[in-house]
Amino acid sequence: MMHRSLHAPALLAASCFLSIALAGCTTYREPVLSVASARATERTPDGTAVAFTIDAQNTNDEPLPLREVEYRLDIDGRQVFSGTRSAEATLRRRGTQQFQLPASIQGQGQDAPVGPSRYVLSGVLYYITPGQLAETLFDAGVRKPSVSFRFEGEVDLSGGAFTNTVP
Q1: Measured between alpha carbons, how far is 89 from 98 in angstroms, rounded to an integer?
Q2: Which partner for 30 in 97, 147, 149, 150 could form a disulfide, CB atoms 3.0-4.6 Å apart?
Q3: CA proximity to 65, closest of 161, 144, 162, 158
Q4: How far, in Å, CA of 85 to CA of 70, rounded?
Q5: What does the alpha-carbon distance between residue 85 and residue 67 come to, in Å, rounded to a whole number?
Q6: pTM flag (> 0.70)
Q7: SS3 assignment, position 4
């Protein structure tokens, strides 16, 4: 019994430190995401490549490094692509940064969507809040700040512009 009571103050101190540190990590606002553009970039007999340009806005006073994006693309109500991509960007303080989310739509003949098509692009963007502890917790998988997104609109799969109906 004596052995446990000697460790109790150390455990209490560690718990308090971790609680304060984690509370400090949550004072940052998540990035605000929107679709800047969506366009077919290439069309072959085997399918179509589509590129979504995403605007990520940081309203914080500190930069936010973006880590990865897990996303899914539905065309006309059917899932056609899912993937994970490194965001390869850091959002400057109080600024906006763009990054690309590519997708490929496989299909031949009547299975291949052509022309204006409804899309739903959804997923999760993972980012790191400032500070060495936040980065360590992210790398260890303990705390991974994220923001979910879902965008709906229309993209011309023959190589045209888009309309965005849900910001």
Answers
A1: 8
A2: 147
A3: 144
A4: 7
A5: 9
A6: yes
A7: helix
Residue 93 has pLDDT above 90, yes or no: yes
How far is Cα 21 from Cα 73, in angstroms, rounded to an integer?
37
Q: How many domains does the chain have?
A: 1
How confident is the model over 69-94, as a mean pLDDT? Answer: 95
What whole-number distance in Å separates Cα of residue 108 and Cα of residue 112?
5
pLDDT reading at 96 higher than 90: yes
Helix or strand holding residue 122 (H, E): strand 116-127
Residue 67: both structure tokens together: 């880590």
Asked whether residue 15 is assigned to any structural domain, the reply reads no
Phi, psi of 122 (to 5 degrees): -135, 160
Classify each residue of 96-114 as buried b or exposed e, where b means 16 or more C-beta atoms within 10 Å of its C-beta. ebebbbebbbebeeeebbe
Residue ranges of the alpha helices (H) in the chain? 2-25, 132-139
Which amino acid is residue 79, in one-letter code?
Q
Paired tokens of 103: 């997708």
**What token pair was written down for 106?**
């496989």
CATH number at residue 127: 2.60.40.10
Does residue 155 contact residue 116 with C-beta atoms inside 8 Å? Answer: yes
Amino acid identity for residue 7 in this structure: H
Question: Can you give the residue range of the structural domain that contains 119?
Answer: 29-166
